[in-house]
Design goal:
Helix content is 34%, strand content 24%. It has helices at 41-48, 74-78, 96-106, 111-124, 140-152, 170-185, 197-202, 222-228, and strands at residues 2-10, 16-25, 30-35, 56-61, 64-65, 81-84, 158-162, 189-193, 206-211, 214-215. Strands 6-7-8-3-9-10 form a 6-stranded mixed sheet, with helices on both faces. Strands 2-1-4-5 form a 4-stranded antiparallel sheet, covered by helices on one side. Helix 6 (170-185) links the parallel strand 7 (158-162) and strand 8. The structure holds adenosine-5'-triphosphate. The site of adenosine-5'-triphosphate has 11 residues, from helix 1. InterPro entries: AAA+_ATPase, ABC_transporter-like_ATP-bd, ABC_transporter-like_CS, ABC_transpr_LolD-like, Cell_div_FtsE, P-loop_NTPase.
Length: 233
Amino acid sequence: MITFDQVSKRYPGGIDVLKNVSFELAKGEMAYLSGHSGAGKSTLLKLIAAIERPNSGTVLVNNQNVSKLKSDALPYLRRNFGLIFQDHKLLFDRNVFDNVLLPLQICGFEHKESAKRVRAALDKVGLLNREKSNPIALSGGEQQRLCIARAIVNRPSILLADEPTGNLDAEYAEEIMNIFNSFHQVGVTLLISTHDAALLRETNLRIIELKQGAIQPHSRYAADLHETQGVSA
Ligand SMILES: Nc1ncnc2c1ncn2[C@@H]1O[C@H](COP(=O)(O)OP(=O)(O)OP(=O)(O)O)[C@@H](O)[C@H]1O
């Protein structure tokens, strides 16, 4: 579903952030993307959503070379994605319901169907009773769940989440991972970047680890990581 083939990325005037990165993420797979701060995790996620373009190599999403797409094709590509990035980009001039409604308005959904979908998404993240609140009145964990509701309201087939549990306490982090697991169960493909050592230690999911822009072969799977650390998986 997602294929990186020898992908390199350098920002203007900078060093190579990603160096010949190759991996595949299968349809319906859920995996973690780990690595130190500055390793290139956000950049890799942005390349999938064609927010950034590689300098060389190919990024395929559903067999489509996204780095070659013209800008007028990007909105169609992005309908496949739910994007949860670190800067929440919540709109504080409207309530919770209207924040989640926005992607559907952009896609031109009819109002009755939109309202149904918005409430289903808010229900999924446990915020149905807060639909009239302003996002500013929500806690950090609730704002994060609101971002997830907004990302899933379009029923995307791929969810890309950049540090979704960053700055959250363990209880909120677990809630968010439970929500992601429930998407995984229904066939959504998920790639989740994280620094969270506890999450990575405990997971049985595949871990794609970036170190200075390159994928670490030893940590492709959590089981391998445990082996290299002398811990039984
Ligand atoms: N738009 C940009 N222009 C120039 N350099 C950038 C840009 N975005 C990221 N970088 C640089 O690219 C490198 C990788 O950044 P990136 O955000 O992808 O890493 P990361 O692994 O997600 O880091 P973190 O965990 O701290 O969020 C960093 O050195 C960063 O400063």
